[in-house]
Amino acid sequence: MLLYNHEHIDPTSLNKQGNDVGINYRTGIYSNDEQILELARLMLSDIEAKIKKQVVVETGSLDHFYEAEDYHQNYLQKNPGGYCHLPLSILRGHSLPSMDQILRAYPSLAKLPKARLL
Questions:
Q1: Does 89 have pLDDT greater than 90?
Q2: Local structure of residue 43 (DSSP, 8 states)
Q3: d(C-alpha 118, C-alpha 31), whole Å
């Protein structure tokens, strides 16, 4: 997911996703696995260096998780013409890049042992 996240979400946009605006639309990467957070921070650092703009994606531990309201569950199945700023194609039928492609796109990841990237 980290590989495709920033192709579809503007990492420089604070509190906004697509047409939705507000603090509840803050872009963030949360996990209780410190290795995942380290990968995310390195990738965000590479993105910031590449685009030469401040990246405002929040990273941190997953302290709270709330299920969405019932009307948001399976939203696009219930509302086939509904709005979603992420194309479903990123979840289906998408081939993963090779390790070489990943390291070219995110050179900071080369600092990590290769086993941690797999």
A1: no
A2: H
A3: 17
Cβ count near 43 (within 10 Å): 24
Q: How confident is the model at residue 41 (pLDDT cuts 50, 70, 90)?
A: very high
- Quote the CA–CA distance of 91 and 23 in Å, as a whole number: 26
List the structure tokens of 46: 């590479």
Share of the chain above pLDDT 90, in %: 32
Report DSSP state, residue 73.
T
Does residue 115 have a pLDDT over 60?
no
User: To which residue do tokens 């948001």 refer?
Assistant: 72
Amino acid at 93: G
Tokens of 20: 């939705």
Whether the Cβ atoms of residue 76 and residue 44 lie closer than 8 Å to each other: no
CB 11 within 8 A of CB 19: no
SS3 percent helix, strand, coil of the chain, rounded to 5, is 45, 10, 45
54 and 46 Cβ atoms separated by less than 8 Å:
no
Rounded to whole angstroms, the Cα distance separating 1 from 3 reads 5
